[in-house]
Design brief:
Chain lengths: 499, 499
């Protein structure tokens, strides 16, 4: 086959797969936001049928041969096509090396683990889930060896999720984070907390919906390209840069929750809406990695959204929407309330300062599990010990402890660090941005689009063309450096708590 | 191939096609209710790709051979399978007999006609649309001849939409309807109209949403099986009996509009939710025909929803939701207001009494077009003449005249009569129901579920297993008879207007 012909075939396959992903993505979004409860059976059946079709479209000898041919001739391809081939090869690496019967058995265990985990979490019954976790760990170690026999198994999985961020990088990263944040958190624990009760008054949902519209407007999100839906657990999905969907969840007694969900998810959407047009229809559309995606959502949520400048910009409108609830509250009080830092039990509800320590607990446990240094039976004890050590909190039950996240039940080990890396990337990006502009001044002046334009030019436009480590070098002119993150948190929270 | 094997193959094909229809259905629903505006390009691309795949899954020699084999052995099949084969054959009859190049050219013209019609409607410019309408008429005459050379072309299309209801039946039907309703409408025109201004006060959308929830509850619609969305033009769709979607459109200054949309679309959904379980995943799930589907939606909307009993049941809650807007209004006034009968220009906004005359205009024009007795150039003049004759109204422009509906631009001729037949079926079904129960008394007592149970037992459970004419015989014990419809309308509106 000629290379030109092979490229055409690759693009044709991508177009076809894209149609399936699009349809399945819309089905998933629909299921999670508006479908009636009993849609579940029909939804699962159709998703299973379509998944099988897409699986067969990728996992077949003809496609392997096509990708191998293109890999051999990588130097003759344009950058986007070369990266598409690389990513396709990466995605198939595991599937090409696992014995089929093990893969099928693993899928079965994964599905069982997911449903058992749901029940175990409700009952806070870790022993119920433990045998399945044990199997998932064993499979993940074995699969890593099939895919990359030369690599440490945990490094293999870490590299899958955040290329270039293996244990040598992460060990140093978390060591620094721990050394700086644990004492800082302890010192803050001795200080009085700001008043925040007003965030928990009665905030009617139809008014909160107006606030969401306003926040998306402030962020410069074009509603013709991005819709907002409502769901139990907020997420963002997109089918192309002109069809993004963010979601939120309104709690009548928690204004902050949806407000910062909208800004966070709006950050994810802004990333993909900023992709260059060449990526429309390409599997490289989206972000460079989970961590880089999270860097943008958390940049908007925390670095911008929880800055004094942003709060001062939006507070007048918030007060206009909720005059009674916010009587006697000013922007300064609001700013302090949404920046309360307090050790807690649940990662997804953690504040900006303590968040990475929640991740560190998971990283340390995963590392030991992947190296056979921790028996799955001992996970709760280790979990609780680490929460006490890093965050100073006592974990009362497995539901609020090691059963809280769904990741392990889905067979996912090595994903968590990207959550923390996202925050660290964000601080480093902020530092680079500040060399060229003053984001606080721009936000205060209502010119947030200039901040977004900078991010688009330095990050968003690339989508998945660049890998995260490379993208960071392009954007910041240097390698990943956690010091920016530590300095950012130390400065911000020292000032907030008058240390 | 063994018959058993052939049936298994048929069911497998159906399952696969069902997955695609499900996904495309959800995409369509999503696009119409929540997708951002600029989703259109990606949506169209993916729908085109998936449509092509489903087309190829049905239109291929292997499938033709399978269906022909099963048709030969129809007597050995169970009823559902036999009807599935029949419907599949019916759906393919045209495609198997049209030369491929003509089909492709027709698709192109259809697509062009649709976009030209949109523009022509906005500009009220019929001559702009006329050349395309001419081509569509010619193709439809030719295609009917390919599919059924022995049939009158208009009969072919009518029979496609509403099996058994060809011109001999419809001519007699419309003759009776015209003879009875035209004078009745003229007499009502001399009577004073009831007060209805209160329906056009300011009705906030978030309160109307509460009303929708209440109406669905009154109708006994299980929200775990049926969601409600918002769209420009309300419709109902469903992916199986446990995943139905109705839609509505809220106008701040028109309470009646969404209220009766919800009841109408709720009727469509109730029909499909009442299918027997054997039809889950079968292409026979749904209704017997468009007309039969419309009979159920209009039964709930008009026969039940605009009855005195129903208005008396729901009015207290409506008044509770809108106490200021409805100050001084009682149930009797509300009942009269939602039953105003007044000749108008737009079919979709017509009242229960005049509705069928709008359909009749279209039927007469289609008949002449399909027989070459009316030049497409003369459609507006004929349209306007008939509106004047039947409804006594002067059509001011093509936008509010012959360009108002999308059907012809989509190449659809012969669909309109089913809208009117639906109402007529409904009145006949009401007559049959009244032999066994008193629906007014049940509604008044808040026992509407008993009405629905009766309809489920006599109509809904069959889905598409029975054809409309046969279903009517099962349900009513006699053939279709328009006298019930005429009597129902005459009695109701004579009483309302004191004739």
């Amino acid at each position: 086959m000629e290379i030109k012909e092979a490229v055409a075939k690759l693009k044709e396959n991508q177009k076809l797969l894209n149609a399936y992903w699009h349809a399945m993505g819309v089905m998933y979004y629909d299921f999670d936001t508006v479908a009636p409860k009993n849609a579940v059976t029909g939804f699962s059946d159709t998703m299973a049928t379509l998944s099988e079709i897409t699986y067969k479209l990728s996992v077949n000898e003809e496609n392997f041969a096509l990708l191998d041919l293109l890999t051999e001739h990588a130097s003759e391809l344009d950058e986007i096509t070369r990266r598409e081939v690389e990513e396709a090869q990466k995605g198939l690496k595991l599937l090409r090396n696992i014995p089929m019967d093990e893969y099928v058995e693993y899928q079965r265990i994964q599905s069982e683990a997911n449903s058992v985990w749901h029940e175990a979490k409700v009952k806070s019954d870790y022993p119920m889930f433990e045998p399945l976790l044990k199997k998932l760990v064993e499979y993940n170690i074995r699969f890593a060896k099939y895919a990359a026999p030369e690599m440490d198994p945990y490094d293999y999985w870490l590299n899958e999720f955040e290329e270039g961020f293996t244990q040598d990088v992460l060990d140093r990263y978390f060591e620094k984070v721990k050394a700086a944040l644990v004492p800082l958190i302890h010192r803050i624990g001795e200080k009085p907390q700001p008043e925040a009760d007003f965030l928990h008054k009665d905030y009617p949902v139809f008014k909160q919906r107006e606030l969401s519209d306003y926040l998306m407007e402030v962020m410069g999100i074009d509603r013709d390209d991005c819709a907002i839906g409502e769901t139990e657990h907020p997420f963002t999905t997109g089918f192309n840069k002109h069809d993004m969907r963010i979601t939120t969840h309104y709690y009548e007694n928690a204004l902050e929750s949806s407000m910062y969900s909208v800004i966070h998810e709006g950050g994810h959407a802004t990333y993909e809406m900023g992709n260059c047009d060449e990526l429309i229809g390409s599997p490289l559309a989206g972000g460079a990695s989970c961590g880089m995606h999270e860097s943008q959502s958390r940049f908007y949520e925390n670095i911008i959204g929880r800055s004094k400048a942003f709060v001062e910009l939006v507070f007048p409108r918030i007060k206009e929407l909720f005059p009674e609830q916010l009587e006697g509250v000013d922007a300064e009080m609001f700013y302090k309330a949404v920046n309360r830092a307090e050790p807690s039990l649940i990662r997804t509800e953690a504040d900006e300062l303590t968040y990475s320590l929640h991740v560190l607990v998971r990283y340390e446990i995963e590392k030991k599990l992947m190296h056979g240094e921790l028996d799955t039976k001992d996970v709760p004890a280790e979990w609780n010990r680490l929460y006490k050590e890093y965050l100073g909190v006592d974990v009362p039950c497995a539901k609020e402890g090691c059963l809280q996240d769904s990741h392990w039940s889905g067979g996912s080990f090595g994903y968590f660090p990207s959550y923390s890396l996202g925050s660290a990337y964000g601080a480093q990006i902020l530092h680079a941005m500040k060399k060229e502009m003053d984001p606080d001044a721009l936000v205060r002046a209502g010119e947030m689009e200039k901040v977004t334009l900078w991010l688009r030019e330095h990050i968003h436009k690339y989508g998945g063309i660049k890998k995260p480590a490379e993208l960071l070098r392009i954007c910041c002119g240097e390698d990943f450096d956690p010091e920016y993150y530590i300095k950012y948190l130390t400065d911000k929270f020292s000032e907030l708590y008058g240390l």
